[in-house]
Fold:
Amino acid sequence: DVKVTQSSRYLVKRTGEKVFLECVQDMDHENMFWYRQDPGLGLRLIYFSYDVKMKEKGDIPEGYSVSREKKERFSLILESASTNQTSMYLCASSLRRSYLHFGNGTRLTVT
Amino acid sequence: DAKTTQPPSMDCAEGRAANLPCNHSTISGNEYVYWYRQIHSQGPQYIIHGLKNNETNEMASLIITEDRKSSTLILPHATLRDTAVYYCIVWYSGGGADGLTFGKGTHLIIQP
Structure:
């Protein structure tokens, strides 16, 4: 079974801090994704990576960056966290032409 | 923005078939229709996908209209554990990120 592991289930950070959210998948998937989920807004794509060191912006990339130095790991970076980035963050991975496997999410609170 | 539209909520009696519709009128020829569901406090889970033919697996059936502008997910014998938010997306993996934003989905409530 594919496993997508997000490093933290809950995270509390202060405004202005640099925040790293880590995601690891164990099935050699080419694609990896970062989403945020807010009540009433569904899941919105932040960034998509289709290969090591390759990335593509999603719908809401502002205030975020990503890093994919190894195939199995995809990091989401909040350069200077703000309260409006309080949200549930979901990571996913997939084979090149297949469906997404999601992790269970990181609930980030920025105070 | 999501490329699909779904009703915000639906009810279904336990043991009956649940039919969840999805409109995707701008779907292009190489885009697949994918269905996922999300149970509270978990990440979304893949259910089924298809291109133009109807598909069935152990979880559900997917009916895609001939013009491919809409589809229906069928849970043949709904149970209380099927209560969840169901998302429909259309995506072609060779097209990059376009289509990967999930809308608000349909909150399906199975009534005992």
